[in-house]
């Protein structure tokens, strides 16, 4: 059984078919990217997995259980957004522990788990700062720590590195891979950036116009592209 099984996933906004009959699986421990140009439906797929958007049709099963219709907080899934969405008035430790607090985890345990996550993302000693006192890359790490602290089955990322400069982005790519391995978490990662996706992913789902163009490893996409679109799109790395 796959960790995540998506079948016939479709989303219409009025006359627009934003996601068109998409099928894919993500296995436990995999790093899978959804890659496609702007407007291809990547965020909409992710938002349906997270529960922020309901599908027009299709099913989404997590660990064998249908999750369509469940509210986001009842899904064993966390999401890291492009704009990070850290709470500016809370400290770093409070940001990381926020979800645990909602779940009724006692303060001492929240602090202990926040500190462990800060170590994981290499921000030891940053717990009492506020987000405004951190660099962009450091804020990124806090958002990641917050998404991992309650040990979800699946972490979703929507273009989390796109606001960083190239050098920092490359560094964070490596960090994401390390953290994924060390925490043994499954990542589903949305990006329009071929370079990032090809560098980090075990497998990629290539979307265009709401439809799946190809699903495969980096090697599959390079050596046996399913369409002209895939060949052009993944060849377009400078
Ligand atoms: P991507 O993340 O690949 O850039 P999106 O999933 O955001 O693409 O969008 C796919 C298509 O659906 C786009 O044409 C977008 O304009 C449209 N869309 C996304 N969300 C909405 C919405 N809430 N209402 C209407 N159209 C939407
Ligand atoms: Mg998007």
UniProtKB/TrEMBL annotation:
- Location of the ABC transporter domain: 4-234
Where does it sit, as one GO cellular component term? Answer: ATP-binding cassette (ABC) transporter complex
Enzyme Commission code(s) on record: 7.3.2.6
Report the catalytic activity. Answer: tungstate(in) + ATP + H2O = tungstate(out) + ADP + phosphate + H(+)
- A molecular-function term among this protein's GO annotations: ABC-type tungstate transporter activity
Q: Where in the cell is it found?
A: Cell membrane
Name the domain of life.
Answer: Archaea
Keyword Methyltransferase in annotation: no
**Where does this chain mainly localize?**
membrane
Please tell me which top-level EC class this enzyme sits in. translocase
Query: How does the record classify its membrane topology?
Result: Peripheral membrane protein
Keywords noted in UniProt: ATP-binding, Molybdenum, Nucleotide-binding, Transport
Record's function text = Part of the ABC transporter complex WtpABC involved in molybdate/tungstate import. Responsible for energy coupling to the transport system.
Q: How does it assemble?
A: The complex is composed of two ATP-binding proteins (WtpC), two transmembrane proteins (WtpB) and a solute-binding protein (WtpA).
Which family does the entry's similarity section mention?
Belongs to the ABC transporter superfamily. Sulfate/tungstate importer (TC 3.A.1.6) family.
Per its record, how is this protein called by name? Answer: Molybdate/tungstate import ATP-binding protein WtpC
Question: Organism, per UniProt?
Answer: Halopenitus malekzadehii
Covered part of the full sequence, start to end and full length, is 1 to 238 of 383
């Amino acid at each position: 059984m796959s960790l995540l099984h998506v079948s016939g996933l479709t989303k219409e906004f009025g006359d627009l078919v934003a996601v068109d009959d998409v099928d894919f699986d993500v296995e436990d421990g995999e790093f899978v990217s959804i890659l496609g140009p702007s407007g291809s439906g990547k965020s909409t797929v992710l938002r349906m997995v997270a529960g922020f958007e309901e599908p027009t049709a299709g099913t989404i099963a997590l660990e064998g259980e249908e999750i369509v219709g469940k509210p986001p907080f009842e899904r064993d899934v966390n999401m890291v957004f492009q704009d990070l969405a850290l709470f500016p008035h809370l400290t770093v430790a409070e940001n990381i522990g926020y979800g645990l607090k909602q779940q009724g985890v006692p303060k001492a345990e929240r602090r202990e788990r926040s500190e462990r996550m800060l170590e994981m993302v290499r921000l030891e000693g940053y717990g009492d700062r506020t987000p405004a006192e951190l660099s962009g890359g450091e804020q990124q790490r806090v958002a990641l720590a917050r998404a991992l602290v309650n040990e979800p089955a699946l972490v979703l990322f929507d273009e989390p590195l796109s606001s960083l400069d190239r050098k920092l982005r490359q560094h964070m790519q490596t960090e994401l891979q390390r953290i994924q391995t060390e925490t043994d978490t499954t990542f589903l990662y949305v990006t329009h950036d071929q370079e990032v996706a090809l560098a980090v992913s075990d497998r990629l789902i290539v979307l265009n116009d709401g439809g799946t163009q190809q699903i495969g490893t980096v090697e599959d996409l390079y050596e046996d592209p399913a369409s002209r679109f895939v060949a052009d799109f993944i060849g377009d790395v400078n």
